Amino acid sequence: MESNLSICSLFKGLNPQDLDNIFMDIPYNEKKYNKDEIVAHAETEVKNLQILIEGTVRGEMMDFSGKTVKIEDIESPNLLAPAFLFGKNNKFPVTIIANSKSKILNIQKHDFITMLQKSETVLNNFLDNISSRAQFLSNKLRFLAFQTIKGKIAHYILEISNKTGMNEIILPKSQNQLAEMFGVTRPSLGRAVRELDNDGFIKANGKNIVILDKVRLSKLLK
Q1: Dihedral of alpha carbons 193, 195, 200, 201, sign
Q2: How many domains is the chain built from?
Q3: Among residues 15, 17, 43, 126, which is most buried (max CB within 10 A)?
Q4: In this structure, what CATH number is given to the domain that contains residue 196?
Q5: Phi/psi at 14 (5° precision)
Q6: End of a domain among 142, 174, 193?
Q7: Would you say the pTM of this structure is higher than 0.90?
Q8: How far is CA 127 from the centre of its chain?
């Protein structure tokens, strides 16, 4: 069994011997993908539990204007679309593309059900995982609903500020990465940041952001 599976959230609390015992009677297969190869198309049925065990992939979707928006990067080891394995509309919500050479472990749905019945720890971890994913997607969709670039920037900055409890933050992403995440051009993003700075909402110096007026910044979300 893959050694890095023990640090996957699905198997949290299990040691390598526990994993060997769980997979003893559970069939699975592995598939490799090259960089930029499509792992799964949006709207295709999720038939297997997919565990990214090597590499990194990204989820992309089209917005209403036809622009490709990157929803997130997923690093190994991690589950792919676990919340869509069950349910009536169990289809991939986004297109999944390999960022680098990647390897994915596949377990058929009925075999995964057997695994859940076999281990209460895996069952609890899976429920925690899909609940967290549902919360993430809800927040992401709410974020994408903001009509203006300034609204998206304000949401992103305030989200980091609320997590750290500080008004001075360091952006974890570059402007290129933010522009890709927001579905806008880099010049448009840079212009919006400068306008927020000039209008006294924030003080921006590269990745260093100081929130000058949190109340006014919050109003951009409405």
Answers
A1: negative
A2: 2
A3: 126
A4: 1.10.10.10
A5: -110, 140
A6: 142
A7: no
A8: 17
Please state the rounded mean pLDDT for residues 178-194. 87
110: CB partners within 8 A, 6+ apart: none
- Residue 54 bridge partners (DSSP): 103
pLDDT in tens, 192-212: 999 999 999 999 999 999 999
Whether the ω angle into residue 77 lies within 30 degrees of 0, i.e. cis, is yes
Task: Indicate the SS3 state at residue 31.
Answer: strand
User: Which one, of 218, 92, 215, 71, lies nearest residue 159 by Cα?
Assistant: 218
* Whether residues 10 and 100 fall in one domain: yes
In which element (H, E) is residue 159 found?
helix 149-164
Write the single-letter amino acid at 88.
Answer: K
CB atoms within 10 A of CB 200: 10
Statement to judge: residues 178 and 88 lie in one domain: no
Distance CA 2, CA 54 (A): 10
- Domain boundary among the residues 142, 160, 195 is at 142
Which residue, among 17, 49, 43, 45, has the nearest Cα to 30 in the 3D structure?
A: 49
CATH number at residue 98: 2.60.120.10
Half-sphere CA count of 55, side-chain side, radius 13 A: 23
